[in-house]
Batch of 3 targets.
Target 1
Amino acid sequence: MKDRQPTQVLANGAIRYGVYNADGTLNHYEYLKREDAPTVEGTPLNKANLLSDTTAAKLWPNAATRPEDPTVNDALGKLSEGTAKVGDIAITSRTDLSDAWLPCDGRTVSQEQYPKLFSVLRSSAAPLPWALKTSNIQPVAVWYLNGEWVGLYGRKFWTSPDLGTWTQQADMPTGLSLVSDVQYANGTYYAVFSGDSTELNGVYTTRSLDTPFALYASGGLPGSAGLKMFITPNVLYIYVVRGEYGAYNNYTGRQVSASYVNQTTKEIVSIPDFISGIVFYAEEKDCFYKLNCSTSDILETSKAKTLINPTWEAVSSVNIKELTPSFNQPSTYTYHALMSAYHCGANIIAFFALVNAAFSGAGTTMYSGYMVYRYSADYGATWENGKVVSYKTDSYSLDNYTNGKYENGLLVLSETASESESADRAEKIIAISAPASGPVYGDVLGSSVDSIALSPDGEAAYISSNGLAYCDYSAAGKEIPTIGTDTRSNAYIKALEE
């Protein structure tokens, strides 16, 4: 809205008006000003009082969608839609909300019913079928990066919008092997390649996959395969997660071996000490978190700003035997072994082997028991028991649960599991979206799933012995959050525009 800006105004405020003849021709000008001696001046009809820029900015916070010159009528129309947006949650004592609001009771909605709400909600774990994808190539590895699928086939990188049609991009560096996942951050693709020469081993980068990866930093690597990276604003770390073992090769937990890139020399520098436990980087906090579980079942969560000479600050220390509800675990189990952990924002899901370990001779430890998970919704400050994910463990070496992805509230991984006390162990796809509700299982198409690729929208893929498999976890609908309130109020989510 704009104020009128006259140019013919006297110093006393009188404004020029034209006096016209009956034929429409101008006769002369006169300057007029009110001289009615009001007892009350009243409110001026101007932009400041009708629709100021400040008020317009509140009604349309996004400048890109704000009308160029909004009027009072535009503002009233906007207000008629309500100030709440689709996906907003309200807790109220009222029960007379319109049909645009749905109760926060965990119900599932479809894209056809509520398209805008569907796009806001997170995908949910569901017993959906996986299908083999027909495509013009059969990649040997697949990732979801920068809004598209990225595959590796014939020592070349390929991209696809749908896993079906693949477009060839740049070649891998000559003579080198990919020994890490490909990762994307800050407009750059990162990967670790290794060969016979230390000078060529290291982190390679490219701004676009149609351009070959170029050496970014070189030097000794913390491992020869299965490497990962923490890409922080100031330091790039390369790390590998290994097992810790006690007497008779008895598994006791995880440890991290890491190196970092010297930003000045672009050399890879080894961090001399192992980090006992599992470490993850919370980008939104610019902070590292570490989980470590002792053989006395004390789960410790701590945090640090760096992995270079870190000072770990305690977040919590929990006796996980005392968490409720219990798993009704066999009374013969001896300890919890921390196998893996995934984080998504403040949420952490940690997998444990709840086992009895017995020495069987010849330096071998035999295991029996459950595989379970615990979860936290506040970066490990508090923990809750989850569910049993497998009622039987591998007798000779515990299951790892390390090949999954956790995106936008949905965790998908593959591991050998038994769904009940009577079920045989078999390789399964395990999906978790509501940790308190438990896992959802799917059959693996083929065998030997190395890793899962997962998009923020809930599309998942993996490479198995039978080829490229795909599942869209959003296809069965998405769950509205379940929010409990007291008897005097209810929680609702806005599902439709009004």
Note: Residues 179-276 form one domain.
Target 2
Amino acid sequence: MPGRRPLTRIGPRIPGAAARPLRQLVAGKTGSLMGCAFALGGALAGADAERVAVLRDFGSRLGVAFQCADDVFGGQRPQRHTG
């Protein structure tokens, strides 16, 4: 998106100072979206509650990893490569 600000640039410039709030912000955005998508997919496929919970956790972690990679690589490559 034009004009968007990567999450890695939010907060103070002190190393590690904003790590926890940043992690919470990322988990609440892309992590929640991916976790919900994976959990819904499992539920619609007939998975039991325990498996749906595992899928939600996996999706959430994958979403956080994706957002971190997007923030790191998004500013380093031309948009035609990163979307």
Note: The chain has one domain: 17-82.
Target 3
Amino acid sequence: MVNPTTALYFAAMVTGGGARVRGGGAALRPGVCAASLTWQLFLAVVGVSMGACLSPKAPRLAYCAGYGLVGHYAVRPSWA
């Protein structure tokens, strides 16, 4: 799984560098995969570490907050 923001960032770096970037196209895919893997591992480690420290009520609050935020962004464009 590749983070789309990471893919866009690396694509902008490679295309923005123009001729100065040697082998940029060949390094793009492994760079994006490595950056995404690093980010996913970081999130997993933080999640496990925080999960061990939090109360059993915390996941329910996190789910409610997450779904509330998604619902807010889903309804928000209709208000404008």
Note: Residues 4-79 form one domain.
